[in-house]
């Protein structure tokens, strides 16, 4: 939640920060602001709305000179989105200015204490409390900004990535992180600060990712000095070479990132297979699994923790792990798991799934599982993310940056990685034969090509979207492997078009949802030939006899469902266990086209943010 960006060096800071904010807007987009030091003073401008609103306001309001500055794009936690609550925030003297991503949980008592000392607050934010706490400590103890930040952070409870500078000492930016990401780009006599590397990728390939409980003072001529916030120990900076490329974070000719990412899925899945799925040699090579094979083979069960779309990928994994490797699996919402005193033992394996690797609930669930002795395996997309670091071992999905807020390629690459894991374990346990293993490998390897075919349904999906775009409710039904896809299809529609949609296991329909069926509620049914086909056909008949409209996802060459359904979208044939990788494609496209036709902001749906780093 919230994107932060900063620059100190020899270039004009404004264009770098503005471009950076646009790239980080996926993290939050209800308000934005910038503070620049123009050589004499701070020029600050902020506004409710998007970064482009800020850009317009700045053009009317402030000069944009200066080679030191910070910027913020917000997803509100404390205080409604308005101009005053937007970041950056000044301290009372006007000397310090701060941006913050995260939550200061104990801001109330700190605020009262500061108010009793005469501090006045203009916003409802926790961030304004933090900057004044820093100022109070700095003035009282007559110490440098870095030291004051450190003392202040030792008094706060919560999560943060912050950047702060002082008008009276404009040669440094102080940054710190706990629970929210922060990268420092290292240029020649210039430094970039950002929530991820995308704002500075065209300037430098070298970056330091601060770890939790670290802070850094970034000075133009003296580089970066890093310390532990709590014990003041010095940390040697680890400079990483970035693997990110500019074209990965641009729309590349597509109208929206979501559409680009839907279309990138064949490529993304091939990347997730690269070096791991070696069908000619009949091998799956995953070092995180290989190195811990004993643990996996001796595990009593696997617990999967995740949120949202990643949780849906976890449900697909439950089916495939149990089906192939015969390991009992439970899938938990991380947000429930962390608070319900679950039974976890040292013989459990916990798999945490997260695109961003920063989701607060998933991170907390991992910490809980580790504290009870479980071995935790991460399936993350963002390299070096908090979850990737917190887990004992893991496998990256290699989907590349996912910028559209609605997850698409993250979902299919997660399923791809989890499928490889399930197959590898099944082979090691002997629950599938070597010839079955080989067949599965060849079929899995063919999935990216089959997704390319599934993507050709775009034109027909668009026509269907035109027919149903004004429906107020949708039902999504699937069985077995495609029950989680029904949930995922409904989530995609809800989050970007704001149409109410529910996903159900098809057989559960008669236990309630069938009462909703009439000519106003379309039902999307996943009816592939290998997945409980006859039973799904019966479900479709039940809907048709109640005047419901059916949009069916069918296997190429299907006859029976096509006869019954009002619309049918064909996908290539595959094994039942891999079908979610194909059936999800038309559902992503359907939600995309409906949202576009309704004029919704597809990449930045209201109230959402890409990574949920707060509870
Ligand atoms: C939906 C979506 C969210 C995320 C959820 C978990 O399209 O994007 O439901 O899946 O917030 O995020 P990660 O995977 O980053 O932990």
Q: Any low-confidence stretches, pLDDT <50, length ≥5?
A: none
Q: Describe the biggest sheet?
A: 8 strands, antiparallel
Question: The CATH topology of the largest domain is what?
Answer: Glutamine Phosphoribosylpyrophosphate, subunit 1, domain 1
* Strands side by side in the biggest sheet: 3-2-4-1-10-9-11-15
Mean pLDDT: 94
How many distinct helices?
20
> How far is the N terminus from the C terminus?
11 Å
Topology (elements, then pairings):
Elements: E1 3-8, H1 13-24, E2 31-37, E3 42-48, H2 51-61, E4 68-74, E5 89-90, E6 96-104, H3 107-116, H4 126-141, H5 145-153, E7 158-166, E8 172-178, E9 183-186, E10 191-194, E11 206-209, E12 214-219, E13 223-228, E14 234-235, E15 240-241, H6 257-263, H7 265-273, E16 277-278, E17 283-284, H8 287-290, H9 293-298, E18 301-306, H10 308-325, E19 329-333, H11 334-337, E20 348-354, H12 360-371, E21 375-380, H13 386-390, E22 393-396, H14 409-429, H15 434-455, H16 458-468, E23 473-478, H17 483-497, E24 500-505, E25 522-527, H18 533-544, E26 549-555, H19 560-564, E27 567-571, H20 580-597
Parallel strand pairs: 18-19, 18-20, 20-21, 21-22, 23-24, 23-25, 25-26, 26-27
Antiparallel strand pairs: 1-4, 1-10, 2-3, 2-4, 5-6, 6-7, 7-8, 8-12, 9-10, 9-11, 11-15, 12-13, 13-14, 16-17
Helix pairs in contact: 3-4, 4-5, 7-14, 7-15, 10-14, 10-17, 14-15, 15-20, 16-20, 17-20
The structure holds fructose -6-phosphate.
């Amino acid at each position: 939640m919230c994107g932060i960006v900063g620059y100190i060096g020899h270039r004009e800071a404004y264009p770098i920060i503005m471009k950076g904010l646009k790239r980080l807007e996926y993290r939050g987009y209800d308000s934005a602001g910038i503070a620049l030091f123009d050589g004499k003073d701070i020029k600050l401008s902020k506004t409710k709305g998007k970064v482009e609103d800020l850009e317009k306001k700045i053009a009317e309001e402030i000069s944009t000179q200066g080679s030191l500055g910070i910027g913020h794009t917000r997803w509100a936690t404390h205080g409604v989105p308005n101009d005053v609550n937007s970041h950056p925030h000044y301290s009372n003297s006007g000397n310090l200015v701060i941006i913050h991503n995260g939550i200061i949980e104990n801001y109330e008592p700190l605020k009262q204490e500061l108010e009793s000392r005469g501090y006045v607050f203009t916003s409802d934010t926790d961030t304004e409390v933090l900057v004044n706490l820093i100022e109070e400590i700095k003035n009282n103890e007559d110490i440098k900004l870095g030291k004051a930040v450190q003392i202040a952070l030792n008094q706060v409870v919560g999560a943060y990535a912050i950047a702060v500078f002082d008008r009276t000492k404009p040669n440094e930016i102080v940054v710190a992180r706990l629970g929210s990401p922060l990268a420092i780009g290292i240029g020649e006599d210039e430094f970039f600060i950002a929530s991820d590397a995308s704002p500075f990728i065209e300037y430098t390939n070298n970056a330091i990712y601060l770890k939790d409980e670290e802070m850094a003072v970034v000075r133009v001529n003296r580089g970066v000095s890093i310390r532990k916030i709590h014990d003041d120990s010095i940390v040697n900076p680890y400079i990483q070479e970035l693997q990110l490329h500019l074209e990965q974070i641009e729309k590349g000719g597509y109208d929206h990132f979501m559409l680009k990412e839907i279309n990138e899925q064949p490529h993304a899945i091939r990347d997730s297979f690269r070096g791991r799925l070696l069908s000619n040699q009949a091998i799956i090579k995953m070092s995180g699994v290989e190195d811990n094979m004993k643990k996996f083979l001796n595990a009593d069960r696997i617990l999967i923790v995740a949120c949202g779309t990643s949780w849906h990928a976890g449900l697909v994994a439950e089916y495939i792990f149990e089906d192939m490797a015969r390991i009992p699996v439970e899938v938990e919402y991380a947000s429930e798991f962390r608070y319900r005193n679950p039974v976890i033992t040292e013989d459990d394996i916990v798999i945490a799934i997260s695109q961003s690797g920063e989701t607060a609930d998933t991170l907390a669930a991992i910490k809980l599982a580790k504290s009870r002795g479980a071995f935790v395996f991460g399936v993350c997309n963002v390299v070096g993310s908090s979850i990737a670091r917190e887990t004992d071992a893991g496998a990256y999905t290699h989907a590349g940056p996912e910028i559209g807020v609605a997850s698409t390629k993250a979902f299919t690459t997660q399923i791809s990685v989890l499928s490889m894991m399930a197959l590898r374990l099944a082979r090691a346990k002997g629950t599938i034969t070597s010839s079955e293993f080989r067949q599965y490998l060849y079929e899995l390897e063919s999935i990216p090509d089959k997704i390319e075919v599934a993507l050709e349904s775009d034109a027909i999906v668009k026509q269907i979207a035109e027919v149903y775009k004004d429906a107020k409710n949708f039902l999504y039904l699937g069985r077995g492997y495609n029950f989680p896809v029904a949930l995922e299809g409904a989530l995609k529609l809800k989050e970007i078009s704001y149409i109410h949609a529910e996903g159900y296991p098809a057989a559960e329909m008669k236990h309630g949802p069938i009462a909703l069926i009439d000519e106003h509620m379309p039902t999307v049914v996943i009816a592939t030939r290998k997945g409980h086909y006859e039973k799904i056909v019966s479900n479709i008949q039940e809907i048709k006899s109640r005047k419901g409209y059916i949009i069916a996802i069918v296997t190429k060459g299907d006859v029976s469902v096509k006869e019954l359904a009002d619309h049918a979208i064909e996908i290539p044939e595959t094994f039942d266990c891999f079908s979610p990788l194909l059936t999800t494609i038309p559902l992503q496209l359907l939600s995309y086209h409906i949202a576009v036709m309704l004029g919704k902001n597809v990449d930045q749906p209201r109230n959402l943010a890409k990574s949920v780093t707060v509870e």
